[in-house]
Design brief:
Length: 169
C-alpha cells in the first residue's frame, strides 16, 4: 500500500491547493503558491509518476452513477488462489476497491450497489468466485468521516496544528 513516494512541504502545499481547487491550471497554482510554473509542473509530474498523486476517480460519487448503497465484504480465501481471486474481483464493476488484510480476514472489498437486490447479486457473485471460501457483508449505513488527506497534507506542509508524527513521517 505504500507507494514509496515521499512528499515534502512544497509538494504538500501544491497538493493542498489542488485539493481546494481541483480544476486549477498549473499557472494558477504557481501564482497562488508563489512558485514558478515550471516548479509546479515538474513536481506534479513527479508526484503522478511516483504514485503519490492517486486516481481522480475517488472524487466521483457512486450515487451519481446510480449506485447509492455502499457495503463492505470481508472474505476468507484460499491463499494459493489469491491472484485469481483478485483478478475475479477486479472484473466485477461494482467492486470499487479491495484490500489484503492481516488477521482473521483475508480481504476487504468496498462495493457499491443500486439497491438491496443488486447488493445480494453482487455478494453472491463474490462468494461464487473461485478461491473465495466465505464472505460477510456489512451495509454502510452512513459515512461519518469521508475520505480525507487534508489534515495530513497540512501537517507535512507545516500548516495548522502539529500533533502525531512530525512532518507526517
Amino acid at each position: 500500500m505504500n507507494s514509496g513516494a515521499t512528499v515534502d512541504a512544497t509538494d504538500a502545499r501544491i497538493l493542498l491547493a489542488l485539493a481546494h481547487e481541483p480544476r486549477a491550471t498549473i499557472l494558477a497554482l504557481a501564482q497562488r503558491l508563489g512558485l514558478s510554473r515550471n516548479t509546479v509542473q515538474a513536481r506534479l509530474t513527479k508526484l503522478e509518476t511516483n504514485g503519490a498523486l492517486g486516481s481522480r476517480e475517488r472524487g466521483v460519487a457512486p450515487g451519481a452513477l446510480g449506485y447509492p448503497l455502499t457495503a463492505f465484504v470481508t472474505m476468507h480465501v484460499d491463499q494459493h488462489r489469491l491472484s485469481e481471486v483478485a483478478e475475479t474481483l477486479a472484473a466485477i464493476p461494482e467492486v470499487v476497491e479491495v484490500f489484503g488484510l492481516s488477521g482473521q480476514t483475508d480481504l476487504l472489498a468496498r462495493v457499491v450497489a443500486a439497491d438491496a437486490e443488486d447488493l445480494y447479486r453482487i455478494a453472491g457473485q463474490i462468494l461464487a468466485s473461485p478461491g473465495v471460501e466465505r464472505t460477510t457483508t456489512a451495509l454502510a449505513m452512513r459515512e461519518l468521516v469521508p475520505h480525507r488527506l487534508t489534515p495530513l497534507l497540512e501537517r507535512v506542509a507545516g500548516i495548522g496544528r502539529r500533533s502525531g508524527r512530525p512532518n507526517g513521517r
